[in-house]
Amino acid sequence: MKSIVLCGTFVLLGFVCSYARGGEVDLSVVQNIEVDRYFGTWYEIARFDNALERNLDRVTAEYLKNPDGTVTIINRGYKPNGKLWSAEGTIRLPPPPVEGKFKAVYFLWFSMTYYILELDTEDYAYALVGSSSPDYLWILSRTPTLPREVLDRLLQRARERGFDVSRLYYCDQTGPNPQASTSL
Q1: For residue 111, what are the domain limits?
Q2: Is residue 41 part of a domain?
């Protein structure tokens, strides 16, 4: 019983903290995602600090289409000690047209809903991704770096949506490619 009360307290505290920070952000998503073009590897350029990725650099997210129509998402990154960290999830996509909102289930009890807030719809070269909470934000790119003007444009769009971009951690993408390792 104590664990239920404690868990409820943390959930309530999370809502209060979000509200106190001005939790109102624009979470409207990109419509009509061409899912096959979104598949592949994305490099994390910047993110809001979060418990799963804390202290990680050289972070990537890889989206792989499965024969049964689901999508596997594999997140990888390196800890300060050089050890590879990874988390694998599954996404069930709705039939087309697909909007930029999907839920990834990572463990029996842990899932994350992702919102594709901004997307380079011409080349699918970069994206601004959030979640159902203003506490999550990622800037992703198909390459380990983004041109300064593209990064500035994404930061401006995030500000316009109500995100506090001063909270962003800029991921170091130098060093070996996380995709090169096969040990998970």
Answers
A1: 28-176
A2: yes
